[in-house]
User: What shape does this take?
Amino acid sequence: MLDSRDAVLENLARIRARIGRACDRCDRDPAGVRLVAVAKTVPLEAVRWVRDAGVTDIGENYVKEIIAKRSTVPGTTWHFVGTLQTHTAHHVAANADVVHTLTPGRAVARLARRAHEQGRRLPALIEVDFTGGRAGLDPDGLDAFADEVAATDGLEIAGLMTLPPMPDVPEDARPFFRRLRDMGEALRGRHPRAVELSMGMSMDYEVAIEEGATMVRIGTALFGERPPAR
Assistant: This one.
């Protein structure tokens, strides 16, 4: 974990430059790529450093952290990027502005119900698993689940997310990002507002941008290596 404001902001400048270069390579406007700073186990002070530097999208994996940080770091959009669980879904509904990890099950039903009770339509992305062994929906089930989400009070289908297998080199992730992009294009034919593609992390975000990512989730490259949450 980096404990120096200057070091974190140097990383941020480097990431922004790399996002810009990736966009140049594929003739995209960098404004179309949202940097989601994943702040898992990151102290409030460091989150404020990047917020004050213009990063307004903050991602959290753990419910307890999004609850603790939201009220003390205003002016941000909070993204829940962790695994949805039934016993904490109501907290996600109350504290997240965007959810990246919809998969079929009771947790999504509870999330939707609580959001609807609060008068919200919570933007949410369906997590697609291309590996057969990680969290997420099997690609063959996307159309049916997307239709279900779109018809559910309390949720608004915003797009797709994926976690490819951990690459040895960034280029290894490209086929998975390309496949998600193709699925997103097909999905928009059925659900035109599902425009987001959340893909790419610290190691492979440039490749993800070249393949159409609209959100990149970056933690380690920004904040440094983090200890596990206690």
In short: The chain has one domain: 5-223. The two ends are 15 Å apart (CA to CA).
